[in-house]
Design brief:
single chain; 151 residues; alpha/beta; RbsD-like fold; six-stranded mixed sheet; 6 strands; globular
């Protein structure tokens, strides 16, 4: 363990977050998402499990280390409800609260049709699968810039 790092973040997750650069995408998903299949096509190339966490808990831990991109209008995407593009499920509001709190501002979350979401997920850097049972617990977070002092 290290000081200041949420104990739910494994060494592999911290490693992946460190490998990612500005503009890279990270998928956080529920157990129903075809995560292993899609993860094979990501930059990282394999699935990362974050067992024992629901999506909001996992996202809060990740966002304690990773800022969201401020150069795009919607740094977070979510999957639309199939057959009801305007449909809402409880995880949407829960995730909205987490990203707003982490960023200290209102963050736009854009909806993506199911297959458009899968296509975007395949282009992501990595996929983290939580123990969340869903449904529609599928989010893509775009990494922002970390402001650091000069060396």
């Amino acid at each position: 363990m290290l000081k200041g790092i949420d104990q739910r973040l494994s060494a592999e997750i911290v490693h992946v977050l460190m490998l990612m650069g500005h503009g890279d995408d990270l998928v956080i998903c529920d157990v129903n998402h075809p995560a292993a299949t899609i993860a094979a096509e990501t930059t990282y190339g394999k699935l990362i499990d974050m067992a024992g966490c629901d999506i909001p808990t996992a996202a809060a831990a990740i966002l304690s280390l990773m800022p969201l991109d401020t150069f795009v209008p919607a740094p977070v995407a979510r999957m639309q409800v199939v057959g009801n593009p305007d449909g809402v499920v409880p995880i949407f509001a829960r995730m909205q609260a987490v990203v707003d709190r982490a960023e200290g501002r209102a963050v736009t979350i854009k909806p993506l049709e199911r297959f458009a979401f899968y296509a975007a997920a395949k282009k992501s850097f990595a996929i983290i699968r939580t123990a969340d049972s869903g449904p529609y617990g599928c989010f893509i977070l775009k990494k922002g810039v970390v402001e650091l002092p000069e060396l």
